[in-house]
Amino acid sequence: MAANLGVHRNLTMLLDFYELTMSNGYLTKGIGDKVVVFDMFFRNIPDSGGFAIFAGLEQLISYLKAMTFTGEDIEYLREKKIFDERFLQYLRDFKFVCDVWAFAEGTPVFPNEPMVVVRGPIIQAQLIETMLLLSINHQSLIATKANRIHRAAQGRPIMEFGSRRAQGYDAAIYGARAAYIGGCISTSCTLADREFGIPAVGTMAHSWVQIFDSEYEAFEYYARLYPDNCILLVDTYNVITSGIPNAIKIFDEVLTPMGHRPKAVRIDSGDIAYLSKRARVILDEAGYPDVKIVATNSLDEYIIRDLLVQGAAVDAFGVGEKLITSKSEPVFGGVYKLVAALGQDGEYIPKIKLSETVEKITTPGFKKAYRFFDRKTGKAIADYITHHDEVIDLASPVTLFDPDAIWKRQKISDFEVSELLIPIFTGGKCVYTSPPLYDIQTYCLAQIDRLWDEVKRFERPHRYYVDLSLKLWKTKQRLLLENSH
Q: The domain containing residue 12 runs over which residues?
């Protein structure tokens, strides 16, 4: 059901205009069918973290399956009076034929490794650039932020409450999906529940309390209406002198006689650490040690971490705008670059992009990506990028080296290897079935557990290495020399 959400609209024309002008040029030049390879990767981890989370693949798959240029699309382009009729006919007859490989959704990822690889005719590989980047960048950003918040909570549930602050309705819906992958247990977004099966939660706003003649009356009616899920918002007037006392009266006078136990109280303003500790004492003394305390109010991983350091008696957190917009760093920065072209002899010719900005220099070639794990600890050692036709000898030690500081070397022998890039499309046919969202989340959290704690620090995390094989490193050095002027 989730895959259908993105194809209610034809999004084929959601592309940058230069993709069309270039593709028109490729065709008129006679190289439109030239087979090339593009990599999608990113350069910097949001919030200076130790890793990011790959997400958005299911929506990319839906887009690629549905690519169709309509008659209206063709007429719009014809009216621009810059496109060759042969190109317009090509678009009218468009059929996706590329090969696509990608990391599994939920995989922890690191800078400069190819998370998505596309091989096919250059026109097609070029035309999918915008939607590929849009799908992966957005959800990877939100999944990464959500996981930071999830880890800060130290096992306490995180609920995604950001729909009303998201950057548009698609961002709210797919942001909820990404947040769930990153570790959130639920969402306030009803449509995300319907489409993706993410549990939708919600109780009341302050307006509910305000519209009644008294806070007690507001709580009473709500408790009678929803006795199995009674969560009361206690900060409309005063948490300690009004909200908590009235909640306890409702628990005593309404829920208990009905044979129900209250679920929680929610605090949405004020000094959460102080108020939650006071509220916990009052609830416990009243005989409600099982009633949870939920905190909301512009939270993020740093505030949550500080609240827990201060001993806040909070059992769960609802996090809104700072999660759904990744407010601290709202751009993921993934890029899509040409890295190889198929030569006349059937060999792939590596291509490189140079720049005076060193971090913008690309790693050339049609590649594979692997992750090494220590057999004894089960922890990830490093990622390893090779030419597509290289073979790793699992029976022999492998020497890893930092591609930016080649004297930093490590020989590993007792390891296991996971190939990270898996086939998604072959010849334009989808050969991959996206797993249920719950399974993606489970996989994501399990893979993060395989990272060393030092990589998961919020401040100055240990750098996880993405190393190149010696053959690939030599290819890059050769092209650097050949193309520098």
A: 2-142+332-363+419-463
Radius of gyration for the alpha carbons in the chain, expressed in angstroms and rounded: 26
Coil, strand, or helix at residue 254? helix
Please report, in tens digits, the pLDDT of each residue of the chain (485 residues total): 344 554 468 999 999 999 999 999 999 999 999 999 999 999 999 999 999 999 999 999 999 999 999 999 999 999 999 999 999 999 999 999 999 999 999 999 999 999 999 999 999 999 999 999 999 999 999 999 999 999 999 999 999 999 999 999 999 999 999 999 999 999 999 999 999 999 999 999 999 999 999 999 999 999 999 999 999 999 999 999 999 999 999 999 999 999 999 999 999 999 999 999 999 999 999 999 999 999 999 999 999 999 999 999 999 999 999 999 999 999 999 999 999 999 999 999 999 999 888 889 999 999 999 999 999 999 999 999 999 999 888 788 999 998 888 898 999 999 999 999 999 999 999 999 999 999 999 999 999 999 999 999 999 999 999 999 999 999 999 999 998 77
The answer as to whether 205 is a domain residue is: no
* Residue 94, SS3 per DSSP: coil
Query: Among all chains, which residue has been given the structure tokens 């999830």?
Result: 150
Domain annotation covers residue 337: yes
First to last CA, the chain: 54
In a domain, 201, yes or no: no
Domains in the chain, number: 1
Give how far the C-alpha of residue 57 lies from the chain's centroid of Cα atoms, to the nearest Å.
9
Q: Which residues contact 232 (CB under 8 A, 6 or more apart)?
A: 203, 204, 219, 222, 223, 243, 247, 250, 262, 264, 265, 266
Bridge partners (DSSP) of residue 387 are 367
d(CA 480, CA 361): 9
pTM value is: 0.96
Max Cα distance, the chain (Å)? 84
In a domain, 27, yes or no: yes
Closest Cα to residue 247, out of 283, 277, 294?
283
Domain harbouring 48, CATH code:
3.20.140.10
Which residue type is seen at 456?
K
| Residue 335 to residue 341: CA distance in whole angstroms | 18
Token pair 């797993």: residue: 435
Helix (H) or strand (E) holding 116: strand 116-121
